[in-house]
Amino acid sequence: MNVKRTFGTILTILGIIGLIYAGYGYTQHSGATRQLIVFGVIGVIFFFTGVGLVKNTKDEA
Fold this sequence. Notes:
Blueprint: H1 3-27, H2 33-56
Helix pairs in contact: 1-2
Transmembrane segments: 6-24, 36-54
Keywords: Membrane, Transmembrane, Transmembrane helix
């Protein structure tokens, strides 16, 4: 299995987890606004980087 594709999958999953955590904290009106913003931004970066790696990596037989 391609290492780039695996790393992209891991980054995508971490991004989804970060976005879910930030969304959950936002809906619970958590007082740590800065922390939620950081988790949200890092989640978006990880998510789109992972999707880009998976999409642009060619399969090699």
